[in-house]
Amino acid sequence: MNSKDNMYVSLGVSPRLVALANDVEESLKERFAQIDEVAEYNQLKVLRAMQQNRVSEMHFHGSSGYGYNDDGRDALEQIYADVFGAESALVRPQITCGTHALYTALASQLRPGDELLSPVGLPYDTLQEVIGIRESNGSLAEYGITYAQVDLLPDGEFDYEGIRAAINERTKMATIQRSKGYASRPTLSVKRIGELVAFIKSIKPDVICMIDNCYGEFTETIEPTEVGADMIVGSLIKNPGGGLAPCGGYIAGRKDCIERAAYRLCSPGLGKEVGANLGVNLSFYQGFFLAPTVTAGALKSAIFAAALYERLGFTVYPDSKVSRHDIIQAVCLEKPEALIAFCKGIQAAAPVDSYVTPEPWDMPGYNEPVIMAAGAFVQGSSIELSADGPLRPPYNVYFQGGLTWYHGRFGIVMSAQKLLEAGLITV
Ligand SMILES: *Cc1c(COP(=O)(O)O)cnc(C)c1O
After folding, report:
1. Cβ contacts of residue 268 below 8 Å, gap of 6+?
2. What residues are in contact with ligand 1 under a 6 Å CB criterion?
3. How far is the CA of 11 from the centre of ligand 1 (A)?
4. What is the dihedral of CA 300, 303, 304, 309, to 10 degrees?
């Protein structure tokens, strides 16, 4: 055993598990090299945009009040636009989270009588109340905006005939979720998103195609705005915040779409001109600069988790071989005790609150108790190492993040250590 292995043992990991982890990592060399290639390309892409926009120290200053002439905010928004191949962007601490960004993007384009189409099945949980799929105060449905949905085919392909039939004269907008979220469908590659957008526009060219880009940023060298999407939307406490953004969301895309989004976020007439940055600029800039490598670490952690748990005999989604377009990993743990042990391991590996023990609890909106592990610097940040799952069969745990690959690796090994201690696996 070398000194790294000894360090693992001193942190409570069984020597046999240390050896297994080393073996699994060895088998992933080629995949990791591909991830590094993507990260290096994206690092240069971000760097180029920062240089071309002449970033300087003054851009990091805080602004207050109305936030007029906030050059730091304006330059950062242009950098996001340039990196994502978009005309314009909104990147703001006033956007509370991903759901708020998505709501703003939807509500800004849709008017009473319009219809919203999801051609990729049921959207993410929180969007269901936004749209009114589940009744909610102030939903789009309350404003007379209807919703149509076409599910993916059983093999995960787009139901092109179903989509063609669903598009009508009222179809104003399509919402396309890149990540599988907490569903079991495959994540969409940017290429596939491009094919879907092209198909929708071939039927009705003026349909605004919005991509829920959460968890997808920087996992590939291109983003959906580079293959025809009108808007992409995401959260800054996921990939593009690089772990440093303390809050916020972004919307990037066509100039007219972003202007409507800014009018909806602030007020008609005010738009992008106002919005003080309240001192977050440095962390927004620095986080975006680090985002390509932070995302690469999270991707390696996800693939390592898949490979390790495959070796331990579990079913994982996606498996350790398929190409990745987001950072979420699910492991089917089959037993409630295994789900709880996994989360305890992730918690025990955290830099913050490592001494607390996660317990299942009754969360609003869920039918079963949910267990969550997170020891994050930023509350709820899921680019940081985190795991959660509802206590119902098949006891899937959803795992994501890791600000560094080394932390992700340690967290996954600790999760397996807790399973080992509970007598749920043998190594
Ligand atoms: C996280 C997420 C959201 C919502 O983001 P919040 O920041 O939690 O509000 C929406 N869609 C997808 C696919 C997500 O992963």
Report:
1. none
2. 97-99, 124, 126, 177, 179, 181, 212, 214-215, 235
3. 33
4. 160
CA 184 / ligand 1 centre spacing (Å): 16
* Atom from ligand 1 closest to the CA of residue 181: 13
Enumerate domains of the chain plus CATH numbers.
Answer: 3-42+289-421 (3.90.1150.60), 56-279 (3.40.640.10)
| Chain centroid offset of residue 54 CA | 29
Say how many Å lie between the CA of residue 141 and the centre of ligand 1.
20
C-alpha 227/C-alpha 415 separation (Å) is 39
Pocket test residue of 96, 130, 212, 214 for ligand 1, highest count of atoms within 8 A of CB: 214
Q: What is the pLDDT of residues 301-350, one digit of tens each?
A: 999 999 999 999 999 999 999 999 999 999 999 999 999 999 999 999 99
Residues 6+ apart with CB under 8 A from 18: 1, 5, 8, 9, 413
- The answer on pLDDT for 388 being more than 80 is yes
- Does the pTM of the predicted model rise above 0.90? yes
Q: Residue 263 carries which side chain, given as an amino acid letter?
A: Y
The percent of the chain in helix, strand and coil, each rounded to the nearest 5, is 45, 15, 40
